[in-house]
Design goal:
It is a single chain. This protein is mainly alpha-helical and about 170 residues long. It folds into 2 domains: about 5-75, no CATH class; about 85-145. The chain is built from 9 helices and no strands. It has helices spanning about 5-10, 15-20, 25-40, 45-50, 55-70, 90-105, 110-120, 130-135, 155-165. The protein is elongated, with a radius of gyration of 30 Å. The N and C termini lie far apart (about 100 Å). The model has no long low-confidence stretch (mean pLDDT about 85).
């Protein structure tokens, strides 16, 4: 005998209400509450009205629970286009950026500089905006300390400050 999704939920040993109380994600919490109401014998329409969702959604959640268990109530991964730059190469890019910054000896790397690194070293052509998104993803911040000119002479600056105070 094949049980309907509704009967599977009603005969389940799972305490949906207790799970909903500890669930962090609101969407999953609503699904667990819906199944708790279905388990109590409430109709799909009444559950949908209480939770302000469609009755079809409640039907789908119960069907998914019947077929795949409690994990079917969790959200699936994002459906957008995945980044071109591979995650396993991110650490290598961080090291390259840090090395080039250290070699520069003054000033700082710009987004255009990083864009060239990504194009030359990894063969990926990114727009400047996408390059900044990549920098954000690997936790590089655009804010940096004030740059120093390579010919900067700290002693000459201190002498200038001292002499300037004497004149005024």
């Amino acid at each position: 005998m094949v049980l309907s999704a509704n009967k599977v939920v009603m005969n389940s040993d799972v305490d949906f209400l207790a799970l909903s109380r500890v669930e962090e994600k609101p969407r999953v919490r609503i699904r667990l509450l819906a199944l708790a109401h279905v388990k109590d014998g409430t109709s799909y329409r009444k559950v949908a009205k209480m939770l302000k969702v469609t009755s079809r959604s409640v039907q789908i959640w119960t069907k998914n629970f019947k077929e795949s268990g409690i994990d079917s109530l969790k959200d699936k991964g994002g459906s957008g286009q995945k980044p071109f730059f591979p995650k396993e190469k991110e650490e290598e890019l961080k090291n390259m950026i840090s090395e080039r910054q250290a070699k520069k000896g003054g000033g700082r790397l710009t987004g255009t500089d990083v864009q060239k690194i990504v194009n030359e070293e990894f063969g990926i052509k990114y727009a400047l905006r996408t390059t900044y998104d990549l920098l954000h993803r690997i936790n590089f911040v655009c804010i940096s300390s004030r740059s120093k000119h390579p010919k900067n002479d700290q002693e000459a600056q201190e002498n200038f400050k001292r002499d300037f105070k004497k004149k005024s």
